[in-house]
Specification:
The complex is a heterotrimer of chains A (about 525), B (about 110) and C (about 110). Chain A has about 525 residues and is mainly α. Chain A has helices at about 1-10, 10-30, 35-60, 95-115, 125-145, 145-165, 175-205, 210-215, 220-235, 245-250, 255-280, 285-305, 315-335, 340-380, 395-410, 415-430, 435-460, 475-495, 495-510, 515-520, and strands at about 65, 90. Chain A has a domain at about 285-495. In chain A, helix 4 runs antiparallel to helix 11 (about 255-280) and helix 14 (about 340-380) runs antiparallel to helix 16. Chain C has helices spanning about 15-35, 60-65, 70-75, 80-85, 95-114; strands spanning about 5-10, 10-15. In chain C, strands 1-2 form a two-stranded antiparallel sheet. The chains are: A mainly alpha (about 525), B mainly alpha (about 110), C mainly alpha (about 110).
């Protein structure tokens, strides 16, 4: 009976269970710290299992809708409403399922890691409450099918992550990073609310499928499109709106940084969802496609060239996160620019979009692994400055192996998963415009260069006398890192299986607007 | 022309708010600019729902008369609450920054550069 | 065996299984060469210390090249680019917001006019 309940209500349970867990966490924490650890770990395990169950259901049966407040959970169009879906609807199609798998995987490993890494701090109840709220809001962002609901989840995630970034005060520097991040997020969310107001005022509908059906591309719709694209591009860290990214990623605790990466990917998902499913062929796809390509190329180049002179481990990795976001924008931008041209779309457009979307899950895994490794080093050494580290490979062997896996994967070296998605992007973008593919390859080489710098200065060299009593990272940290490293190896050795199961349905769901509309309105 | 007055007010408020956010140096004044911007968006959403000669939609068994749209009012309620939480968090950050740095001048908070 | 299908991009194939077999063969050859190395040497004596043409060995903290000095040549060659780019990343928050509003305004002008 419990299985039936879970299967029927799975889209709401992935959002409701972390929410209830977050609000009960301070009460449970009053009993003892061991109860709080078990509670948080249990909530995250249950959420991840339900998310993977929901993803497998969607990939076998097609899009699932869940209506709030109706008598059955399928009644999207109430009988007396005249064919209009009036309630809030969660629509989970293949692309949402893809993002949920990412959030489940990274969320579980990060909470396992954070059990040990944040042990001696005070105010841990507030920390885990905000963390569970962040996981809940990311799950909500990727499952919702309603425009205003998306805005509410964006605001929840901005507030929760701003509080988490400011957690370690560090003489005021973390608060400065948090206020910069939160102010940029608030301005982006207000842009998004402007766009919602414009679209609602014209078409009297907030549901994405309903708007997709009623949209004619008037002047006001163009303004709304620009506001949505700019708001979501700011939230995901594309150049030239990337200035908050190094500050926020550096000063957050390392487990929070790995989750912030997933939050940025969820905003990227939102960008793709609105451009492809809401507007589809109505918009001026050549211009918006080229805009995404231009900011993608700028992100790649500026991200990696700003990363090379850095001396702070996490700031360097944060600039690389900007650079890899550029790859995703480039891949999907090429797919968008040839959206109306059906021969070019089948020739290289679909492959480019598959490369960009596959890169999202690869990036979440290897960036999460790299930030967790950096966090393990900072946990043992106590400072983030690379100029003072050296020779740690003698004592932290497992951390060094995980770092090698992450660094080779981000540079695109076979057989890791970075190579698989980058190969798809190179080969398809080359057919579109060879200059862009050459820039992408040069950026990949520079990425490898900067990670060789990090590897040499931290792990190589003779063992220094001041670090002679540094031990290996604790076991739960290694298990959390090991889950992500195992995912990297598996995705790299069997790439076509992953593409056939996860990525290709997601790309097909993005390109096929009518299947999304039919899932909600039901073939009217 | 008279019925378009809320929309003109929205445009004027938006411009004033953007001007405040971009040119003022004091952190508290920038927060007030963000509040004015949020008020402008709320005013836009509310004034979309107005129907001429309508009454408030608060009936249970409604007699047939023209009513103002209720959905924008729900959206604006949510948005006002989000604005309150945003302002509270930003103000508490400002207080701690003042305690640690000794200043609320935006141009002096440059510890995290390049 | 469909787990081991190659990755097909639009213009070619990449088979990770072949790469794995090639790597294992290379590692086996490398191991065979390594096993035939010199086995009788005495640890801890002159035979295992680094040889710097007879000069005394400097302390370990000095020998290790730190992170700031590793890519000096690259940063020096792109000096004009970095002298423009790094001061652009001021720490001031209003500059961040100026970029966002500026690009939005530019994009609005381009998309609405063209």
């Amino acid at each position: 009976m419990i299985t039936d309940f879970v299967i029927k209500n799975a889209p709401i349970l992935v959002v409701a269970i972390p929410l209830i867990g977050a609000f009960l966490c301070p009460l449970v924490g009053r009993i003892s710290p061991m109860w709080r650890k078990t509670w948080v770990l249990g909530i995250v395990t249950v959420t991840s299992l339900i998310a993977i169950l929901l993803a497998s259901m969607v990939l076998t049966h097609g899009a699932i809708t869940y209506v709030f407040g109706a008598s059955t959970s399928d009644l999207t169009v109430p009988i007396d409403s005249g064919g209009i879906p009036v309630r809030i609807i969660f629509t989970v199609d293949a692309m949402s399922a893809f993002m949920e798998v990412i959030t489940a995987l990274v969320g579980f490993s990060v909470i396992l890691y954070s059990m040990v890494a944040d042990k001696e701090r005070s105010n841990l109840e507030q920390y885990y409450t905000l963390f569970l709220l962040l996981i809940c809001s990311v799950m909500g962002m990727v499952t919702t099918g309603d425009l205003f609901n998306f805005f509410v989840f964006i605001e929840i995630s901005s507030m929760a992550s701003a509080g988490l970034v400011a957690y370690r005060v560090e003489k005021g520097r973390a608060i400065e990073a948090a206020i910069k991040y939160f102010m940029v997020s608030t301005i982006a969310a207000i842009f998004f609310l402007f766009a919602i107001a414009i679209l609602y005022g014209q078409y009297n509908a907030l549901n994405i499928a309903m708007l997709a059906e009623r949209l004619q591309f008037t002047l006001l719709d163009k303004i709304a499109l620009i506001l949505i694209v700019m708001a979501l591009a700011t939230k995901c860290g594309a150049v030239p709106m990337h200035f908050w990214t190094p500050d926020a990623y550096t000063l957050a605790p390392s487990s929070v940084t790995a989750m912030l990466v997933v939050t940025s990917q969820a905003s990227l998902y939102g960008l793709f969802r609105f451009v492809f499913t809401l507007y589809h062929l109505h918009l001026n796809y050549v211009m918006i496609g080229w805009f995404l390509i231009i900011i993608g190329v700028l992100s790649m180049v500026i991200g990696v060239t700003m990363a090379i002179p850095q001396k702070d481990v996490k700031r360097l990795m944060a600039y690389h996160a900007i650079s890899q976001t550029g790859y995703m924008l480039l891949g999907v931008g090429v797919g968008l620019a040839v959206l109306g041209d059906s021969t070019q779309l089948t020739r290289f457009g679909i492959i480019a979009m598959e490369g960009g979307i596959f890169h999202i899950i690869n990036h979440a895994m290897y960036k999460g692994l790299l930030f967790l490794t950096a966090g393990a080093i900072i946990f043992r050494i106590g400072s983030r400055d690379m100029n003072r580290m050296g020779g740690l490979g003698h004592s932290m062997k497992y951390t060094m192996i995980f770092f090698i896996i992450g660094a080779l994967s981000i540079a695109g070296i076979p057989p890791f998963n970075g190579f698989a998605s980058k190969l798809l992007i190179y080969e398809s973008v080359y057919l579109f415009n060879p200059f862009l593919a050459i820039i992408a390859m040069v950026v990949s080489i520079l990425t490898l260069a900067s990670f060789v710098k990090v590897f040499h200065s931290i792990f190589m060299g003779p063992p220094l006398p001041e670090y002679s009593n540094v031990k290996e990272a604790p076991l739960p940290m290694l298990i959390g890192m090991g889950i992500l490293a195992l995912g990297i190896l598996l995705f790299g050795l069997f790439p076509q299986t992953v593409i056939d199961t996860l990525v290709h349905p997601a790309t097909a769901a993005l390109l096929n607007q009518s299947s999304y509309v039919n899932a909600v309105i039901g073939g009217v | 022309m008279f019925w378009n007055l809320p929309y003109f007010t929205v445009v004027i408020l938006t411009f004033i708010a953007i001007l405040i956010i971009l040119t003022k140096k004091n952190l508290v004044k920038i927060l007030l600019g963000i509040n004015i911007l949020e008020s402008a968006v709320n005013l836009l959403i509310i004034s979309i729902g107005y129907r001429e000669g309508g009454v408030a939609p608060i009936f249970t068994l409604a007699p047939s008369m023209t009513m103002v749209l209720p959905t924008p009012q729900a959206l604006v309620l949510t948005s006002i609450v989000i604005g309150v939480a945003t302002s509270a968090l930003l103000l508490s950050f400002t207080m701690v920054i003042y305690r640690k740095y000794g200043t609320v001048d935006v141009e002096k908070m440059k510890e995290l550069r390049e | 065996m469909e787990l081991y299908t190659p990755l097909s991009t639009g213009s070619g194939y990449w088979n990770p299984l072949m790469w794995l077999i090639a790597t294992i063969l290379t590692l086996i050859i490398a191991y065979i060469i390594w096993v035939r190395g010199e086995k009788n040497y005495k640890r801890g004596t002159e035979q295992t210390k680094p040889f710097i043409s007879g000069n005394p060995e400097p302390p370990k903290g000095v020998v290790h090249i730190r992170a700031g000095n590793l890519y000096w040549g690259f940063i020096d060659a792109l000096d004009r680019y970095y002298r423009y780019l790094i001061p652009l990343h001021t720490g001031i928050m209003t500059d961040y917001l100026l970029w966002i509003f500026g690009i939005t305004a530019g994009l609005l002008v381009v998309l609405v006019v063209v």
